[in-house]
Amino acid sequence: MRRFGLIGRPLGHSASAAYFAAKFEREGIADCTYTLYELPEIGALERLLAETPDLCGFNVTIPYKREVMALLDDLSHDARLVGAVNCVRRTADSRLVGHNTDVIGLRAAFDCLLGGEQPSHALVLGTGGASQAVQYVLAERGIPFDLVSRDAAKGNYTYDNLPCEAVEQSRLIVNASPVGTYPAVDAAPRIPYGYLTPGHYLLDLVYNPPLTRFLDLGRQRGARILNGEVMFRRQAEASWRIWNE
């Protein structure tokens, strides 16, 4: 049996196990399983690997996308440049190689949301591992951006000092934070939504629930919106290809 899985904390919102179970059934893959491994801290990964020698690869989610890098033997080009890992391949000789398939999912999500449009400026909410992938893909596209963080040392703005003009002028806004994820479905990043317009594009990396409060508030203002489903599916398939190289 070949085992795969997801490490992170908490994992109650994750659709990864259901996604891969459906994939294995649909494609007649009988020798694989995918399990959610909720780790209390990143140091618990060593024990998980020791106890699960047939774990061939795993995804990484909040809050370990950066912390896991110190435990890996090598990094792909994208993972090294992004500074975050969401996919790890365990080689035949038990080396751990980190990859970032979030960037693949984000490229697809931006294509879907923006079409051929090129916003002149973006606002990225959050400064964690997922945000780093967003920043990488925005830079690829030549879209300048500002960061909004709870920590003044990590962003251009905090949620408490975010100018209304920054929201009004940033026609692409990406929620790269976990705010609004199930079960906290009534939460939304604290930005002045009254300054959104039909000319805005909102991308939420959260996919559970499908319509977050962040996206719903944007929709009410006429903005074009997209949740994290496209990104989730594309990064999952990219992870599968990496594990089966």
Describe this structure in words.
This protein is of the alpha/beta class and 245 residues long. The chain is built from eight helices and twelve strands. It has helices at residues 16-26, 44-51, 77-82, 102-114, 129-140, 164-169, 213-220, 229-243; strands at residues 2-8, 32-38, 55-60, 74-75, 87-90, 96-99, 122-125, 145-149, 157-158, 172-175, 201-204, 224-226. The strands form two sheets. It has a six-stranded mixed sheet with strand order 2-1-3-5-6-4, sandwiched between helices. A six-stranded parallel sheet has the order 9-8-7-10-11-12, with helices on both faces. Helix 4 (102-114) crosses helix 5 and helix 4 runs antiparallel to helix 8. The longest helix is centred in the C-terminal third of the chain and has 15 residues, at 229-243. The two termini are 17 Å apart. The model has no long low-confidence stretch (mean pLDDT 97). One of its GO terms (biological process) is aromatic amino acid family biosynthetic process. One of its GO terms (cellular component) is cytosol. GO terms for molecular function: NADP binding; shikimate 3-dehydrogenase (NADP+) activity. Keywords: Amino-acid biosynthesis, Aromatic amino acid biosynthesis, Oxidoreductase. It comes from Alistipes onderdonkii.
